[in-house]
Amino acid sequence: MAADITLSRPATTTEPATPPGHRPLRRFLGTRHWTFAAGSVIFGTILAVLILGPAIWSLDPAKQDIIQRLKPPSGQYWLGTDNLGRDVFARLVEGGRFTVTIAALSVLISVVIGVSIGILAGRLGGWFEEISMRIVDLLIAIPDTVIAIFLVAIFGPGHVTLIVALTIVGWTPYARLSRGLALQVNAMDYIRAAEVLGMTRGFILIRHFLPNLIRPISAVTFLRFGHKLITVGGLSYLGLGVQPPAPDWGLMLAAAQPYLDRAPMLMIAPGLAIFITALSVTWIGHGLEIDRTKPKD
Known about the structure:
Blueprint: H1 22-31, H2 34-57, H3 88-124, H4 126-139, H5 144-155, H6 159-170, H7 172-186, H8 189-196, H9 201-237, H10 249-256, H11 265-289
């Protein structure tokens, strides 16, 4: 008697498939240090408040009410009022827009100039590399504050002067890093193969050089962005940046000094804003720089 044989289909598990577009993102986040996620959340929240804050809360940073001067934090004034009765929270949001924008513009211009010069120096070599790197060595030894004081003495304080002062020295780290990376990529076999095949310099630059520069340049950019935020606040505190009555975190710190004993929030609020914003972007740069999949030396 033939034995009954029952054929059954193998058990299948139905798991939700990960969308193809999400896989690179999940793989990238899985290799980053925890500081990248923490810094991104904090900095994203700060940007959302700075961009959407005036539209959501409808606060006027310039509105004065002498009767309400130096009020402590309350339901009406979240961070209190200053010596002229102006809302500290409204001024903090508006001042952050000035500070972050100036720092971002100076960093963006520095990245474009520095990466362009660094790639050309590493790619072309010769006299261009020698001259550009000697200029980098000269400028990198000069602090931003010294150049800012020199330019303010000539052109006067203001947004443009501050951005120019931060950019004159700011492009040098990107040029040095881009040159070193360009020299490494130049030694790769696929670059020589592309040249033998007759590919143009522009195609080689876009196809092979720039992808190798994105991650290290991004890490340095966020790290330098934190430094620029502190520099902008310090220069404004010294009166070399944004001028009154425009709000700025550095100006708010300077204006709060005479009232520190009566209204400490006037100094605590902008000080914390500079610290937390600079810390968040520094964490992002630190997280981009560290790859958890690579073994430690």
